[in-house]
Amino acid sequence: MKRLRTIYAIVYDMLNQSGFGWNDETKMIIVDSDDMWNEYIKMSSHPNAKDYRNAQILLLDKLALAFVKERATSKGVVAPADVIEQLEEENNNDESYWGVADCLGVAKDVFDDSRSLMNELKKMDLTEQEHFAATNKILSISHRLHMFWGSDDTDRLAFVKSLI
Questions:
Q1: Do 23 and 30 form a contact (C-beta atoms < 8 A)?
Q2: Which of 79, 22, 77, 13 is nearest to 41 (CA)?
Q3: Domain of life here (predicted)?
């Protein structure tokens, strides 16, 4: 749930920047220029923002439905950095976790696959730093998790090494 909230916070922040927009047909962020993108990435408080340049974000509409209430206050919109700080302080409970999963229409097995990823990566000949980098890269874009679990052991290792 934290990861989904963080994805929404990153994308929400980008889409609220001048020069950034959304292509609803491709489900991708669009930006006016490479220079604008590079400047945003340098200044962004989101270390994974760079991963969203050419990534499809198929669930954005559903993420917005699930998390829009958390982003608004009586004083206006909450800053993305504040949302991330709040997420780090929260304790996940199963009720809210599965409530978001239901809202997003994501099956329980997808969440279970995400939770099992680190254990599977530990079986590979990777350093601890590479484990964390691979986990971050795989979970930052939804289709990568499907690619990981859809591969056999040899292809899985090659896929992971291509990301790190």
A1: yes
A2: 13
A3: Eukaryota
Q: Which of 164, 90, 93, 95 is nearest to 134 (CA)?
A: 164
Please spell the DSSP secondary structure of 42-93, one letter per residue: HH-S-TTGGGGSS---TTHHHHHHHHHHHHEETTEEPPHHHHHHHHHHPPP-
Q: Is the pLDDT reported for residue 134 higher than 90?
A: no
Identify the CA nearest to 138 among candidates 125, 123, 154, 149.
149
Predicted model pTM: 0.46
Q: Tell whether the model's pLDDT for residue 73 goes beyond 50.
A: no
Burial class (CB in 10 A: 0-12, 13-18, 19+), 11: buried
Single-letter amino acid, residue 119: N
Amino acid at 110: V
